[in-house]
Amino acid sequence: MSKHVRSLAVGIVLTVVFLYFFGRSVAWKEVPAHIANVNIFLFLLTIPLAVFHFVTRALRWQVLIAREKPDVRFRNLVAANAVGFTVNAVLPGRLGELVRPMYLARKEGLRTGFAIGTVVVERIFDAITNCVLLGLFMVARPLFSSSWPIGREAGESLVYWGTGGAVLAAVLITLTLLIYFFREKAERVFTVLVKPLPAKAGAAVIRVYRGFIEGLEFFRSPSQLGFYFALSLIVWLGITLFYWVFFLAYRVDAPFFMIWPYVFLTAIGASIPTPGMVGGFHYFSKLGMTLVLGIAASRAAGMTLVVHALQIAVTCAVGYGILAREGLTLFQLKRMGESERR
Question: Which listed site, 55, 103, 113, 216, has its alpha carbon 20 to 30 Å from 207?
Answer without folding.
Answer: 55
